[in-house]
Design goal:
With 251 residues, the protein is mainly beta. It has helices at residues 2-27, 204-207, and strands at residues 29-38, 64-69, 85-86, 88-90, 93-95, 98-102, 105-110, 117-121, 128-133, 138-143, 147-153, 160-166, 171-173, 179-185, 188-195, 199-201, 210-213, 218-227. The strands form 5 sheets. Strands 6-12-11-8-9 form a 5-stranded mixed beta sheet, with no helix packed on it. Strands 14-1-18-16 form a 4-stranded mixed beta sheet. A 4-stranded antiparallel beta sheet has the order 13-2-15-17, with no helix packed on it. A hairpin with a 6-residue loop joins strand 8 (117-121) and strand 9 (128-133). The protein starts with a helix and ends in a 24-residue tail after the last strand. Mean pLDDT is 84; it is low at 8-25 and 42-55.
């Protein structure tokens, strides 16, 4: 009788473990990491990287980490991220400052200020120029491919934001403490990618490594970045020229 009871308990334990594994396979697991940003070493030319405009070390917040399946898993990039997506212009600011969207998404740019704005982007992501449009109106842009788009206003140089368009639903954004979590990652092999506005990878091989996900949560350890020049703090207008220092921003 005791032997049968032990066999029954062992069998139940096996079933529970199997159900747990199947549940993890269906729902995916968490992939976590911690971001650290260190001072940049001097370049080969002997030039030190400039500090940010505030003179402080870049924050480990708002670092985007994403995982791209090495084999297509059939899951849409919009899975869990349906939208709609908006970058609001208010008080001469874009809100939010950082927006991650599935590739192919449209982003609205409503103007809630009492004056004109001219939203544009000329970087390697989505290139566009929405032209001048007045208070209370909105325009939209479709980010049709994966990439990083730096967003500016041609009238107000202090305005800047970033749209990160991804072809995978498996991504996370780091907190102020540097903690980052990618939720619901199914078992499989993935290529890791890391982006930061004001930092770059200290070891590109390490930040683009293959990550294996099975039935248990994965911790990637430290992601070490080094401070770099912030492209938003050092940008030109849409004509590739410096903003006029005497511009009064009357509209």
């Amino acid at each position: 009788m005791i032997r049968c009871t032990r066999s029954l308990i062992a069998g139940l334990a096996t079933i529970v473990a199997l159900l747990h594994a199947l549940g993890a396979h269906a729902q995916g697991v968490d992939v976590t990491a911690h971001v650290t940003i260190q001072k940049a070493a001097e370049s080969m030319a002997g030039m030190a990287m400039k500090k940010s405009a505030a003179g402080a070390m870049a924050s480990p917040a708002d670092v985007v980490v994403w995982l791209t399946p090495l084999k297509p898993d059939g899951n849409s990039a919009s899975m869990g991220h349906p939208g709609p997506f908006r970058l609001v212009q208010k008080d001469k600011m874009f809100t939010p400052h950082l927006l991650v969207v599935p590739a192919g998404s449209s982003v609205e740019f409503p103007n809630l200020d009492p004056f004109f704005h001219n939203v544009f982007s000329l970087f390697n992501g989505k290139r566009f120029d929405l032209g001048l449009y007045e208070s209370g109106t909105t325009r939209a842009v479709r980010f049709d491919r994966e990439g990083i788009s730096y967003i500016f206003c041609n009238i107000h140089p202090e305005m800047g934001a970033v749209v990160v368009a991804l072809s995978t639903p498996y991504w996370g954004i780091s907190t102020v403490s540097g903690a980052v979590a990618v939720h619901g990652v199914p078992p499989g092999d993935y290529r890791m990618h890391v982006w930061s506005e004001a930092a770059r990878s200290a070891n590109p091989v390490e930040t683009e490594r293959v990550v294996q996900v099975r039935s248990a949560p994965v911790h990637l350890g430290e992601i070490v970045l080094e401070g770099a020049i912030d492209p938003i703090a050092h940008h030109k207008n849409k004509f590739g020229e410096d903003y006029r220092a005497d511009h009064q921003h009357s509209y």
